[in-house]
Amino acid sequence: MQWRMWCALALMTVSGLLNYVDRSNLSIGATDIQNELQLSNYQLGVLLSAFFWTYALSQLLYIAGWLVDRLNVCWVLAGGVALWSFATGACGLANSLVLLFALRLLLGAGESVAYPSYSRVIVNCFAEHHRGFANAAIDAGTKLGPAVGALLGGLLIPRVGWRIFFVVLGAAGLAWTIAWIAWMPKSPRLAAGSRAASGFAEVLRHSALWWTSLGLFCSNYFWYFLITWLPPYLERERHFPKAKMAVFSALSYLAIALSSVASGWFSDRWIERGASPTRVRKTFAGCGLGFSTVLLAVQVIDDAAVAMPLLLFACAAFGMYTSNVFAISQTLAGPAAAGRWTGVQNGIANLAGVAAPWFTGWVTQRSGSFFWAFAAAAAAVTISAAAYLFGVGKIEQVGASLLKNSA
Question: How many CB atoms lie within 10 A of CB 275?
Answer without folding.
Answer: 14
